[in-house]
Amino acid sequence: MTRRVPPPREAAKAASSLADKPTRSTFLDRRPSKAKELLQKSLKLVKGFGYRKTFSAAWWLVALPVFVLGLHLLCSKDNCYIRFNPTIPKTLKVYADPVVISYGFGVVLLQCLLSAIPLGKVVPGFGYRRVNFQYRSNSLLCLVVSVALYLFAVFYLRLPNTAILQTHRFKCVAGATILSFLISLGLYFKSLKAPSSHLNHGSPCGPGITGNPVHDFVHGREVSPKIGKVFDLGQVLVRTANCLWVLAVISAALQARGSGPVFGWNYNIALVSSMQLLYVFCGSLNEVYLLKSAFIQQGVGFLSVFSILVLTPFCATLPLRYLVDTKAPDDCLLCYPGLAGLFLVGLFLVHYSNCLKYNNARHSGKTLRTGPWRFVRHPNYLGEVLCILAWTLPCRSIALPYAHLAFVVLNVICRSRMCEKNTNADYRGYMSQVKYRLVPFIF
């Protein structure tokens, strides 16, 4: 039998139809390539968004409020010790009391009004972000007027809830946390219209903006957020923290007044209250020296706002609150001159170091190698640690009042290491000469 051979035209048509028809193996080969391409696009989007920066910023956004709120849950009015079953409030009003939040807004608005008064010396900044900012230094005026208004409300008007910073401590911390979030949100939206020269481009001690909304919200998009030329919102926040700190000390002292040997107070409360009031007073008096601090160089976001409005006034006064609530007995009289001396040494280091740092930046700008910088590389940090240690030691062996000291020490260690990573040749030569960061012969 002879085999039938198709005509050439039919054979070509059949061959083209077989070539165009996808086989099963070809279809299976194409599916992994499409899935792989989709996976690569997804990973590129995630990397572009910055998942590491997002998780890191979200960690600070959650961890700091949990730390402070948990600390005040453990150290309550009745007891102050580490336990595994703290009493957690279940009422929403405890966390978001409208009265407490409105008081906080009132303090912030008062500092805004007082800061707008055209009194005080206007000094230029250092031009960290391609522009020379200007600042009005009237922090002491804001503090004195605020305290005078508070005392007038307490003794003359007899207003209720004037001791709320001592009697309802957890409510105040929770309200200040909400207030910090709202202020940070307002600063974030304000920064969207800020000129590029005012944005946070990063520094050796902190990151800059990345376009990631979570990261930029936490670390701040704008450096020294201002309204006008000299009205600085960052300074308003610092003055608000100083005001809350002083009011918390006065509130605790008024509640503790009784039959003690020092105008109705025992020695512990009198000493710790005096230390903290003097610390805030000197800080307000020498506010201009802080223009060379890292706070002015970095963006003002949730991390800085929460640290200023919550960590500073409420954690620093935790030892005093413990002494007032527990009516802790006095120490031996010989201990108090030592505590006062330790505090005065720390206070001197803080302000003398900041003064030298400020004047050096105004004139030469070179690395400081004189004064306390001959012994340690960060004498101002050492002074802050000594001050906090001095007003915490009267709590004796109770652990929780030392939480603020531990946080500051850990923060200073991490910050000093971070700031010294990216430095110039002059500072690296200084680091080879002065080996210790904080404590001579130790660290």
Could you characterize what this model shows?
There is one protein chain. The chain is mostly helical and 443 residues long. It has one domain (57-433). The protein has helices spanning 8-20, 24-49, 51-74, 92-95, 98-115, 139-155, 164-167, 169-191, 213-219, 233-256, 267-285, 294-297, 302-316, 318-326, 335-363, 379-392, 403-419, 425-433; strands spanning 121-124, 134-137, 226-227, 231-232. Helix 3 runs antiparallel to helix 8, helix 5 crosses helix 10 (233-256) and helix 10 packs antiparallel against helix 11 (267-285). The model is unreliable at 24-30 (pLDDT under 50).
List the helices and strands and how they pair.
Layout: H1 8-20, H2 24-49, H3 51-74, H4 92-95, H5 98-115, E1 121-124, E2 134-137, H6 139-155, H7 164-167, H8 169-191, H9 213-219, E3 226-227, E4 231-232, H10 233-256, H11 267-285, H12 294-297, H13 302-316, H14 318-326, H15 335-363, H16 379-392, H17 403-419, H18 425-433
Helix pairs in contact: 3-8, 3-9, 3-13, 5-6, 5-8, 5-10, 6-10, 8-13, 10-11, 10-13, 10-14, 11-14, 11-15, 11-16, 15-16, 16-17
Stretches with pLDDT under 50, minimum 5 residues: 24-30
Q: Helix fraction?
A: 55-70%
What does the overall shape look like? globular
The average pLDDT score comes to 84
Task: Determine the strand fraction and express it as a percent band.
Answer: under 5%
Distance between the termini: 102 Å
Rg calculated over all Cα atoms: 30 Å
> Oligomeric status of the shown chains?
single chain
Secondary structural class: mainly alpha
* Count of runs of 4 or more consecutive helical residues: 18
Spatial order of strands in the largest sheet: 1-2
Largest sheet report: 2 strands, antiparallel
Number of strands: 4
| SSE pattern, N- to C-terminal | HHHHHEEHHHHEEHHHHHHHHH
Number of domains: 1
